[in-house]
Specification:
486 residues; alpha/beta; Rossmann fold; 35% helix; globular; disordered N terminus; binds S-adenosyl-L-homocysteine; binds iron/sulfur cluster; binds FE3-S4 cluster; tRNA-2-methylthio-N(6)-dimethylallyladenosine synthase; cytoplasm; 4Fe-4S
Length: 486
């Protein structure tokens, strides 16, 4: 899920572990107050910030990209690794300086850190006025009102139902071409290293009709790509019985039955053949052949799967409670190749130095990478999180220097593999979607191919949002270069 460090060459451990964030765009729809949001962590969080902006707009806030102009500053935080939390704490102390000069400024912490630390955060970070967990954003106007009256506001209630299905997000993170659509919330897996089930609560799936409606609206507004988001999209399951059937119109109620992820993919793919569909994240234990067949059937479902392995060793996978082993994972990869072919992009997440991991077991992760030939990976060293199963059961016994060295080996391996995978695309004719201007030169555009790779192409007469056929002419380990084919 953590796609924030995707488009750059990762060369070393420090960069891979650096904690990037996104800031709200400048918006001016005539509201009287200004909201500044900084978002950390995964795409889910970035998507949630768009929902928060929408809720805050209703109570009179436009967003600003400059915190000096803000009446309210919100940090939408991540707890996945210790480093992510430390970054937010440092940021809070910077905002403390501003608040000293401007006491009426309101500062709130949202997201996973809010959920993990609850009231404790108010004690630890005295400047914070609001602490709001991921399922309580509808309460924000009320909490902001309370804080304006001098009462600190906390709501970290986790819901079994909340999906924010009816809220139309303010597209803060968008280039006008691709947008995120949240399709489910929470996670019911209990990977032993992971804090997400505690910060995001129980898994619940969003009404599929609200999802297709959102996709259609995006398409009508010029968007050409949607990414369906969830911690574990393959366990998407929605049935009208479990939900409120009365919300459906008559026609929908008649056709409504249990909707699984493959069905949802098909429903969104049918919105328009010119709307590209991506999704993230898939769990190796849940991704079905039916999903792969559906991907094959629809040209507009991108041929790219993020399938985090975490470790290549079965004993470590068992300790991680991933509920699959090396063989199972490799079998899934084989199926992907069988059904979707060699060109399908595959990426992964990897954790180096999990509790008790031996050198041989670390080698299994490297050999797994060689076998699968990942296009890219998000790579981390293990960071023990309070309250998780691993923290309770196992000793975090791999020295930091060893974790870092193993991570560096994984990063180096991925660099080699990315280059190999890119080189094999040189010479190919591909359809790409133009997403924006290239950072390198104003005469070039940044486009993406189906396998989620950045392709730099000459500007020509192209516009953002156009599909264009290109021939891949060159590459680095991070980028492909193409020329337009007429
Ligand atoms: N739901 C997704 C992952 C979400 S968290 C999935 O199951 O694949 C994103 C990634 O952060 C994880 O895949 C894992 O590689 C990493 N991660 C999670 N907890 C971690 C921890 N305690 N230490 C280091 N990396 C961690
Ligand atoms: Fe965390 Fe595992 Fe859930 Fe992913 S599937 S969010 S790693 S518990
Ligand atoms: Fe995402 Fe971080 Fe929470 S990865 S779900 S924001 S802990």
């Amino acid at each position: 899920m953590e796609n924030i460090i995707k488009d750059i060459d990762i060369i070393n451990v420090e960069e891979a572990e650096s904690c990037d964030f996104k800031v709200t765009a400048e918006e001016n729809t005539g509201k009287t107050k200004r909201l500044y949001i900084e978002s950390y962590g995964c795409q889910m969080n970035f998507s949630d910030s768009e929902i928060v902006a929408s809720i805050m707009k209703e109570t009179g806030f436009d967003t600003t990209s400059d915190f000096n102009n803000a009446d309210v500053i919100l940090l939408n935080t991540c707890s996945i690794r210790e480093k992510a939390e430390n970054t937010v704490r440092k940021r809070l102390s910077q905002f403390n300086q501003i608040k000293k000069a401007k006491p009426e400024l309101m500062i709130g912490v949202l997201g996973c850190m809010a959920e993990r630390l609850k009231e404790k955060l108010l004690e630890e970070e005295k400047l914070v006025d609001l602490v709001v967990g991921p399922d309580a954003y509808r309460d924000l106007p009320n909490l902001v009102g309370q804080a304006e009256d001098g009462h600190k506001g906390v709501n970290t209630f986790l819901s079994r139902e909340e999906t924010y299905a009816d809220i139309s997000p303010v597209r803060l993170n968008s280039n006008g071409v691709s947008a995120m659509i949240s399709i489910m919330r929470g996670c019911d897996n209990m990977c032993s290293f992971c804090v997400v089930p505690f910060t995001r609560g129980r898994e619940r799936s969003r009404d599929p009709y609200s999802i297709t409606k959102e996709a259609k609206e995006l398409f009508d507004h010029g968007y050409r790509e949607v990414t369906l988001l969830g911690q574990n999209v393959d366990s998407y399951k929605w049935s009208p019985e479990e939900n409120n059937k009365a919300r459906l119109n008559k026609k929908e109620a008649e056709i409504a039955e249990v909707v699984y992820f493959s069905d949802l993919l098909e429903m969104v793919a049918k919105v328009d053949p010119k709307l590209r569909i991506r999704f993230s994240t898939s769990h190796p234990k849940d991704i079905t052949d039916k999903v792969l067949e559906t991907m094959k059937e629809y040209d507009n479902i991108c041929k790219y799967i993020h399938l985090p392995v975490q470790s290549g060793n079965s004993r470590i996978l068992e300790m991680m409670n991933r509920t699959y082993d090396r063989e199972w994972y490799l079998n899934r990869i084989q199926k992907i190749r069988e059904i979707l072919g060699e060109d399908c992009g595959i990426s992964s997440d990897m954790i180096a130095g999990f509790c008790t991991e031996t050198e041989e077991e670390h080698q299994d992760t490297l050999s797994m990478m060689d076998i699968v030939q990942y296009d890219f990976s998000y790579m981390f060293y293990y960071s023990e999180r309070p309250g998780t199963l691993a923290e309770k059961k196992y000793k975090d016994d791999i020295p930091l220097a060893v974790k870092k060295r193993r991570l560096q080996e994984i990063i180096d391996k991925q660099g080699q593999l990315s280059l190999i995978r890119h080189k094999r695309e040189v010479g190919q004719i591909q359809e790409v979607l133009v997403e924006g201007l290239s950072k390198r030169s104003k005469d070039q555009l940044k486009a993406k191919n189906s396998a989620n790779k950045v392709v730099i192409i000459p500007k020509g007469n192209l516009n953002i949002g156009d599909y264009v056929t290109v021939k891949i002419t060159d590459c680095t380990s991070a980028t492909l270069f193409g020329e337009i084919v007429n």
